[in-house]
Every structure is written in structure tokens, then in C-alpha cells.
Amino acid sequence: MTERVLIRLSRMNKTLVFLAGVAVVFAGLLLPGIVGAAILVVLVAGLGWLLSRTWAVTPPPMRATRVIILALLLCVAAYKAS
Asked: What predicted TM-score, i.e. pTM, was given to this entire model?
């Protein structure tokens, strides 16, 4: 199943996927309290899963950048939840 999801993602329009991701982040930031935090946590979980699947083919500097971005999103989610 994991392979099918990755194949489907690779066939999608990269610009639309990026814009959808930005829209989800903004929704998580703008929605109040626990709802926004939950959206951000689900997004971090999904992106973390995707990063774990593509870790071997991601260049090391990009790995660090992606991990830092995920950590920052998780911190924002924790701040919104409190």
C-alpha cells in the first residue's frame, strides 16, 4: 500500500500539491485552538511519514531542512494547543 501511495503522489501536479500544503498550513495557523493544532499535527505526521519513505534519496542538507521545518510546525501546534 505504501508503494501505491507514493506512486500516486509522484504522478500529481507538484504545483497543486504545494499549494494544497500551503493552504492546510494556513488553515492550521488561522483556526483557533485545538482545531488548528490538530490540523498541524496531522500534517506533521503525514509529512514525517513521507520524509521517512524518501529519506534514502534526499540529500543530507535537505534532510536537515525538512526535519527543522517539521519540528517548527510541531512547536507551533503545541503552542496553539496550550
From this structure: 0.84
